[in-house]
Design a protein that fits this description.
The chain is α+β, with helices and mostly antiparallel strands and 471 residues long. Helix content is 55%, strand content 17%. The strands form three sheets. Strands 2-1-5-4-3 form a five-stranded antiparallel sheet, sandwiched between helices. Strands 7-9-10-12-11 form a five-stranded mixed sheet, covered by helices on one side. Strands 6-8 form a two-stranded antiparallel sheet.
Length: 471
C-alpha cells in the first residue's frame, strides 16, 4: 500500500517518521540519563546520611544498646532503616513491628532475601546500591566500621515512587521540547522532501507519456540542479529531442518515399497516356483540314479537342523536367514573378511583402525556379485571409538559394502537411492539386529541400536549392 504512494508524499512522510523516531530515541535517552542522575544523587545523599548515622551507631552497637540505636533511627519518614549485626541478623530498625529483632533478613520476604544475597556477594567496606525492577523499594547498604573493622551493615530503603515526581517532570519537559522541535522540523522536512521529490515526480510523469502522446506535446523542463536528479532530467530531455528528431526524419523519409513512388507512377501513366493522346489530337487536326464538316460536327470536334488538350495539359504537368535554360536566374526574374502575382494579391486586398535579396545572377535555370516561386506565391495568395499579408523572401545564404513564402491564413494540420505534396490533393474549389507536387518534383531534381511550418496565424514554405556552380 505504501509503495503506491507518490514520492511527493513518501519522502516527506519518511523524513517526518525519521524525525519522530529520532525525537523518541533522544527523549528516551534524556529520561534515562536524568533517571541515572537522580539515582546517583540519591545514592550520594544516602551515603552522606548513612555515614553520619553509622558513626553515631558505633557506640550503641559496641554496648549492645538497642534503645539508643532505635532513638537514632526512628525519625526517618517514608524511609526504612535496618541495622544488621555481624551475623546478618536484625539488630534494630525504625519499624520494629515489621522487622523484629534478631530475625534473619531472609525471613522478611524474597525482596530482602535477594538483598541479603547481594550483601554476602559484595563483601567489601564500600557502600553500594541495590535495585531490582520487581522490588517495591531500592536500597543503599552502608558498612558500619570501627577502627577499620566492619561491625554491622546499615540498610536504607526508599520506595520506588520516590523517583516518580522527578521522572514525570523530566518526561514533561522532554515531551514539550520534542514537540516544539517536531513542529519546527516537520514543515522543513516536508519542504525538503517536496524539493527533492518534485523533479523526480515530474520526470516520472513525463516518461509515462512517452509512447502514448506525441513527443512535441511533452513539455518537460529539466531541473538545473547539478546532481544526479538534474543529470537524469537533462538526459531525458536530450533523449526526447533526439527521439523527436528521429521521428521527424522517419516521417520525412516516408513522405519522400511515398512522393517518389507516386511521382514514378504518375510519370509512367503520363507517358503511356501522352502517346495515344498526341495521336488523337493529330487525327482531329487532319480531319479539320481534309474532312467535310458541318456546324454540328465542328461543335462536337471543338469540344472533343478542348477536352483532349485539357488532358494533355494535365499530363504535361506530371512530366516535370528541369531543363537548362538559355540564361541563369537573375534578380529581374524574381521581379517578373512579383508582377504576375501582384494582380491576384490586389484582388484580395493583400499586403504583399516582397524581399528580393539577389544582386547578381545565379547559376540556376530561371524557368523551373520561377515556376517554384509562382506556385508557392499563388498558393500563399489563395490561402491568405482577406486583406491579410503574404511575405516572400529570396536570398543567397551559405551556398544555397533560400526561398521563404508565408501567409496569415488557416493553420495546416500535421496530417495535411504529410500529404501536401501529393498530386491531386487540394482543398480549394477549382484546384488540381498539381502545383505543389510540381514544385516538390522540381526541388528534388535540383537535390534541394522543401519544408512546411504552420502555426496559428502563419504558414511558411521554405525551399533551399544548392548553388555548387553559383557565380
Amino acid at each position: 500500500m505504501f509503495g503506491r504512494i507518490s514520492l511527493r508524499y513518501k519522502i516527506p512522510i519518511n523524513l517526518s517518521l525519521a524525525i519522530l523516531l529520532t525525537s523518541l530515541v533522544i527523549g528516551g535517552v534524556l529520561i534515562w540519563r536524568s533517571y541515572e542522575e537522580v539515582r546517583n544523587d540519591l545514592f550520594r545523599s544516602s551515603v552522606e546520611l548513612g555515614t553520619v548515622l553509622a558513626n553515631t551507631l558505633v557506640a550503641p552497637l559496641k554496648h549492645d544498646d538497642v534503645w539508643r540505636a532505635y532513638q537514632v533511627l526512628r525519625s526517618a519518614g517514608s524511609r526504612i532503616f535496618i541495622v544488621l549485626d555481624e551475623a546478618n541478623r536484625v539488630f534494630v530498625s525504625n519499624k520494629p513491628a515489621q522487622f523484629t529483632m534478631l530475625s534473619e533478613l531472609t525471613a522478611n520476604g524474597p525482596e530482602l532475601a535477594h538483598l541479603q544475597t547481594a550483601i554476602d556477594r559484595h563483601g567489601s567496606l564500600t557502600p553500594f546500591f541495590h535495585e531490582r525492577p520487581e522490588d517495591a523499594r531500592v536500597y543503599v547498604v552502608i558498612p558500619v566500621v570501627d577502627d577499620g573493622i566492619q561491625i554491622a551493615n546499615l540498610i536504607i530503603g526508599y520506595p520506588h515512587s520516590i523517583f516518580r515526581p522527578h521522572l514525570i517532570n523530566i518526561a514533561r519537559r522532554v515531551g514539550i521540547t520534542s514537540l516544539i522541535v517536531m513542529l519546527f522540523l516537520i514543515p522543513i522536512s516536508w519542504w525538503i522532501g517536496k524539493q527533492t521529490a518534485e523533479p523526480l515526480a515530474e520526470l516520472s510523469e513525463s516518461m509515462s507519456r512517452v509512447g502514448r502522446e506525441p513527443l512535441v506535446s511533452i513539455d518537460y523542463q529539466p531541473s538545473e540542479r547539478d546532481d544526479e536528479i538534474g543529470h537524469l532530467g537533462q538526459s531525458f530531455s536530450a533523449m526526447i529531442q533526439e527521439l523527436d528528431e528521429k521521428q521527424n526524419l522517419e516521417r520525412q523519409v516516408i513522405v519522400s518515399e511515398r512522393l517518389a513512388a507516386v511521382g514514378r507512377l504518375a510519370a509512367g501513366v503520363a507517358h503511356e497516356i501522352n502517346n495515344p493522346l498526341g495521336g488523337m489530337i493529330n487525327a482531329i487536326n487532319t480531319y479539320r483540314r481534309f474532312g467535310r464538316t458541318d456546324p454540328e460536327t465542328d461543335k462536337t470536334v471543338f469540344l472533343l479537342e478542348r477536352g483532349l488538350r485539357q488532358i494533355h495539359e494535365t499530363v504535361s504537368a506530371l512530366l516535370v523536367e528541369a531543363r537548362q535554360e538559355r540564361h541563369d536566374l537573375t534578380p529581374e526574374d524574381i521581379e517578373d514573378v512579383r508582377l504576375l502575382v501582384q494582380s491576384d494579391a490586389q484582388k484580395k486586398g493583400l499586403h504583399l511583402v516582397w524581399e528580393n535579396k539577389l544582386d547578381r545572377p545565379l547559376s540556376l535555370p530561371s524557368t523551373p525556379v520561377r515556376q517554384v516561386l509562382m506556385n508557392l506565391s499563388l498558393n500563399a495568395v489563395e490561402a491568405a485571409k482577406q486583406a491579410g499579408q503574404v511575405t516572400l523572401r529570396v536570398a543567397r545564404e551559405n551556398g544555397l538559394l533560400e526561398i521563404r513564402v508565408s501567409n496569415d491564413g488557416l493553420t495546416v494540420s500535421n496530417e495535411a502537411i504529410e500529404r501536401l505534396f501529393e498530386p491531386f490533393v487540394h482543398d480549394r474549389p477549382g484546384g488540381t492539386g498539381l502545383g505543389l507536387w510540381v514544385t516538390y518534383q522540381i526541388v528534388q531534381q535540383f537535390n534541394g529541400e522543401i519544408f512546411v511550418q504552420s502555426e496559428e496565424g502563419n504558414t511558411c514554405f521554405m525551399v533551399r536549392l544548392p548553388l555548387e556552380h553559383a557565380v
